[in-house]
């Protein structure tokens, strides 16, 4: 399994979807544990469905002192994503210039056809 250097990953700049402020990713986990949810893009139906599903965990995470942050690669679709209320945590976007993260595979295979159908409903 690949090792992730969190100090290097943490240097990536994120832009807050609410305030426009740019912050280093590592600043979000300095004071408390953090779950980072990476979206393929904000307009993706499956991403929106997954965001809604993970948002169901937000009250329990918050109750246990854990933040939930969603990160997408661009601003395209962000306004609709926010207006649709798909995600209950903090939303950030990671500008293309900073796309240096080494993503690791999830370790499981999921057939997503039924998810796409459910996301459209």
TrEMBL record:
Residues 17-75 form the Alkyl hydroperoxide reductase subunit C/ Thiol specific antioxidant domain. InterPro entries: AhpC/TSA (IPR000866), PXL2A/B/C (IPR032801), Thioredoxin-like_sf (IPR036249). Gene3D superfamilies: Glutaredoxin. This is Alkyl hydroperoxide reductase subunit C/ Thiol specific antioxidant domain-containing protein. It comes from Ataeniobius toweri.
